[in-house]
């Protein structure tokens, strides 16, 4: 999904020191605290400038510093996973397939959140051909049965999300952040599409015991935390008959941050 913004980000990232996936995976954040932020692309360029000056490194995979992702979320006919999130249920999960387009790898991923706000993600490799619907894969179905409360017969493809991702890590490896841009949503049930335009969704994962230079950078650029789920925002925008609850307010907050109206078609 190349665009002008991606070109600008590529130029900004060229001066970052690289970090490999193996280096990042070797460091475990044992007392991890996660938080999300939303900003616009112009502000992100300023944040990247400050991050580079502060010694942050950029993840490079297969020679790429910006990596395109494609995800397909699965849910029940009545969108139970969306409704659990909308209704504030603490224990919940999401089921999706994800393709890492740069490497050509695809996975079935199951994310479970417990009542303490901790998220655990399990995944298993699948064929790229099964990205749109893994349910014909007996091994994937067995994996789903072991790790999810849902069966393959309860689920169907609901929502595809596409975006470009930048991943940064601080010099001491005590915090990482994923930066998602160029977000596009396509609803498999309604045929409706939407884009978050120049919005940027950032997730910061940090060691709760360590100070955070990135939080200082966010504060300097007036970027505030905002709990946001890409799946739930996408459903809100592309399911006309859904009761969105607080997610409608989240969309309005994003519109205010990027100073643009977000519409579906």
């Amino acid at each position: 999904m190349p665009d002008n913004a991606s070109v600008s980000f590529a130029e900004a990232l060229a001066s970052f020191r690289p970090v490999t996936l193996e280096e990042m995976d070797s460091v475990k954040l044992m007392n991890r605290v996660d938080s999300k932020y939303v900003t616009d692309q112009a502000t992100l360029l300023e944040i990247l400038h400050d991050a580079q000056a502060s010694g942050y490194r950029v993840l490079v995979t297969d020679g790429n510093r910006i990596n395109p992702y494609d995800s397909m979320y699965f849910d029940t006919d009545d969108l139970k996973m969306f409704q659990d999130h909308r209704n504030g249920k603490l224990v919940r999960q999401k089921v999706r397939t994800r393709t890492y387009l740069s490497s050509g790898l695809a996975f079935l991923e199951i994310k479970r959140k417990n009542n303490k706000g901790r998220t655990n993600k399990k995944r298993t490799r699948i064929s790229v051909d099964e990205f749109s619907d893994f349910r014909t894969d007996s091994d994937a179905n067995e994996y789903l049965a072991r790790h999810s409360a849902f069966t393959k017969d309860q689920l169907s493809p609901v929502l595809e999300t596409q975006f470009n991702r930048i991943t940064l890590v601080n010099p001491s490896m005590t915090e990482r952040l994923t930066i998602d841009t160029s977000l596009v949503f396509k609803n498999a049930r309604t045929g409706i599409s939407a884009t978050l335009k120049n919005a940027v969704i950032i997730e910061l994962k940090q060691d709760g015991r360590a100070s955070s230079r990135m939080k200082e950078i966010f504060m300097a650029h007036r970027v505030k935390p905002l709990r946001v789920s890409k799946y739930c925002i996408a459903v809100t925008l592309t399911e006309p008959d859904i009761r969105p609850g607080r997610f409608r307010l989240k969309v309005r907050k994003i519109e205010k941050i990027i100073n643009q109206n977000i519409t579906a078609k």
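The CA atoms of residues 156 and 215 lie 39 Å apart. The chain has one domain: 4-258.
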